[in-house]
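Summary for the steering committee. The consortium agreed at its last meeting that each partner would contribute one worked example illustrating the joint modelling workflow. Our contribution is presented below. We chose a case with several input lines so that the handling of multiple components could be demonstrated. No manual editing was applied between input and output; the record is shown as generated.
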Amino acid sequence: MHKISANRKRLLTFILLGWALILIGDRIGELRQYQGAFVAMYALAIASIILLTGYSGQLSLGHSALMAVGAYAGALSINNLKLNPVIALIVAALVAGIFGLILGIAAARLSGPYLAGTTLALAISLPTIANQFTILGGEQGILFDIGAPPARFGEDFSQYKWFFWISSLAALIMIWMISNLMHSKFGRVFRALRDNQTAAQLSGINIGRQKAVAFGLSAGVAGLAGGLLVMLISGVSPSAFPLSLSFSLLTGAVVTGVYDLKGVMLGGLVLVAIPEIADSIGSRVGDSDGFTMALPGFLVSALLILAVLFLPNGPGKLLKKKM
Amino acid sequence: MKRISIVSAVAVAGAMVLSTLPAQAADPGVTSTEIKLGLSSPQTGTAALSYGKLPKAMKAYFDYINANGGVYGRKIKLIARDDKYLPTQAATQTTNLVLNDKVFALVGALGTATHTKAYAAAQLAKNNVPDLFVNTGFSGFDNKTKYPTTFLVLPSYAMEAKIIAKFIADTPTLKPQASFLIAQDDEFGIDGVNGFKLGGHTFTKAPTLYPQGGLSSALAEGALTALSAAPGKPVLVLMGTTDTTATLLKAAEKLSLTTKFNWIVGSVGGDANTLLALGVKSTTIDGVMAASFFPDAKDTSDEYVSQFMKINEKYNPGVSFDNVVLQAMNSAMLTVQALRAAGKNLTRAGLIKAIEDKGSTFASAGLAPLNYSTTSRVGYNGYWFGQLNAKGELLPYITGKRTLYTTDSTSTSAPVLSTYERKPIPKNGIPTN
Amino acid sequence: MLQFITAILTSLSAGAIYALMSTALVLVWRSTRVINFAQAGQAVLTTYIGYEVTVRTGSYWYGLIAAILSGALIGATIDRFFMRPIFKRIKSGPIVMIAPVVATLGLLGIIQAIIGFIWGLSYQTLAAPVSTDGYKISGTVIAFSPFNSMVLISVTITMVLLTILFQKTNIGLALRASAYSPEIAKLSGIKVDAVRTLGWAIAGAAGGLAGMLYIPNSYLYPNGMDVLLVFGFIAAVIGGLDSLFGAVAGAMILGFAINFVATYVSYKLVFPTAFVILILVLLVKPGGLFSSSKGRKD
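What follows is the complete predicted structure of the assembly.
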């Protein structure tokens, strides 16, 4: 009985969150709607990292590549297979998930830094691979058009608001699903993998298989985030998924607290807000080129280090203490 | 009931007042004293090596105009944002420019992957935001349906390749030689590869493509060694960014292959100043061929170059004057002429129409004609062929005789010799059109 | 034939530089169980310092010494004042694995930003102290210059010195013991913290040397050694993160694979080749080729 009501509580929370987001979306201007859509997308991408690292203890430096796989799958299904854009997003998640599963199987025997190295190598190879096949559109890439908002929403319903709705709702639904998963038996298995592999093995868990499954799930989530990203920029290119994206996601995950899904929105907010803040500081202060251009990188890195030093377990615990 | 009728009366009155205000109140970024323009370009990264000087150079020219009365009394404010040559950044920065900074128009946007995304993301078509003089060689932007507000300025890489192909075919010392192409596997190289096909030129070996950021000196040496086996003095075309062009030239120095090849460098990676700054020897630069549509940035006898140099010294001190600065100031001058041509009643639609109608008559430093019309969004469409000397000056290949060819980006028809005469520079470089 | 010889020579040169980076990474890994992404930043920073000294004194050699010494100093400082507090705060949970890595990522960003603040973002060049023109052998110029010889010799000497240090000296024993089993080492009276800092210092010095040997063939800018970091890391993983010999072997394997595939197949495949080699090695031996401990789970 207790379990069921905890799940219901969670569902209720997410539904309320969804309502709140829709209400917020109505009140903020177009620019904030667009930025909000990015926040939701990054939050989802960070969630995929948390799923993999915080819950199953594997470190990936190549999630940008997984996002790209989903993105290309989504774009191709709209352009070549003429699928409905919403279906395309689902395809993005599925294809990336399957890819991740295969990768996870191959990488199951790899521990910590070896897995990190492999995913790093994948991330840097990606642009080249994308350029090899003409069907992927080369540098110009492929268009990803989610379409205009339905007519019934009226004239005032801007494209940005539509982006905001799709991005937030997709992220919300997916994170709710992950949350449920993590509170189930699955979640306990993953946590066992993370905390003590030997003990997990002794209790009969097939380590290799579970690690691969975790990788596949994480990749699927990342793939959906990738699909959302290219929706927001109206198309996919190899250069949209640089290695620095992987590092940014890791940053967001650490700042959020890598164990807990609760703070992902904060992480997404950080990734969107920091470059903005740095830009505005830079334009106010600097005439010196080196300073203004290096500032955003400096701020993000400084934030990361501060987060690691003072909040290694994420701000969640800190908030809890205060309350 | 009373309330409603009062409200409707106020509404009607308000509508009447609004309809009598000049139309420009509707377009953001324009006031009676200021015009805001936006630029999203790479200020960091390897693309910045080629284009980093763009924002400040444009701003320098605008500052000069502002100091001389502005455009009908309005001062131009340029807001430049760094997109790091990444599509996601370009999309968000351009959206910022439109929604946050509320610019009147965009100028000088850079990159194919970046700007195609930015155009859609910032809804430039829907908001009718003029997208002037984009700094990219992507011919796909010449498409009034897809990019209704965009105007190109640079010739495309395909045009450049076609004209280089013609040059090779027309030059007796080059035509019989073997020919090779080493190109960057991105927009700085691939369009060129296609252009050579359109120009009917087949290389002796399939082009060597390298990934951006992936051509180490070791690999460059290997690539050149492979080609050095060819007899005679093969033509070697390099189409990539400046750092990789420099890497290849320095590898040639190491292998004593500098005189083995007839070098031709693409416009993006061929800025002599930058190559010398990156460590290429002047003896290596001497004799390298390149195509250009501008006068050489060191040619002080050219009236546009000398005027822009003066402006650069005063308003952009500390920055050396090179081809990018020349290009940037030229675009800025075109922008000012476009704003003037749109009239005192400045609207976005008016600006676009002004360029369509009058753009081809604007004065500019370019030696090729500008091709703006109601059906064409193409800027310059031609190149002349030159050879660098040890000082890094690009001089016409045939001494004293600068021959310019014009062509298009998509057909196989041969480039045509142009008789275009450039308009003289307006007095002091201040347009009065 | 010339093609083949060139491929071998360029592979050797590339592999030597990768070896220095992978060695630095392995040194830090062995002493701290951390992948130090800041390595690229440290190496570039020390190269800038070397560059400044070279420009002011007119001698590359002074610059080289400055780079190596400052590399050691910076490495030690980072461990003492940055990594140690992190380890103090993070004692348990999987965050132990991820936090230091992420911290070094942050450090990399900060170092690169600081370099940008001080020196700006434009590309600088550093001239080599000896000729970079290829040797001429029976009329043909080969892709190997006196500078390449210098690089190979320097790397070889460094590797020999490090091996002697680790295998034949007490300090080396202390370094190895502290990495393998800090508690036991402490019990035997080894000052584990100080020893670890020494490990970082040596790694930092190696990075400085790598930078001064690499940059004359490339360009000096804040992100100038990022690609080296990635290749160095992949090389270290291929060789097995526990083994110095593995670091060198992995670097050579990677260097040869990349250069040969580029020469004989396609230059486009530079990065995918690295990935494929890595996957192949790890499929066969998940701990890297020369990893000493088989079943260690991290």
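Chain A touches chain C through 55 residues (CB under 8 Å). The mean pLDDT of chain A is 83.
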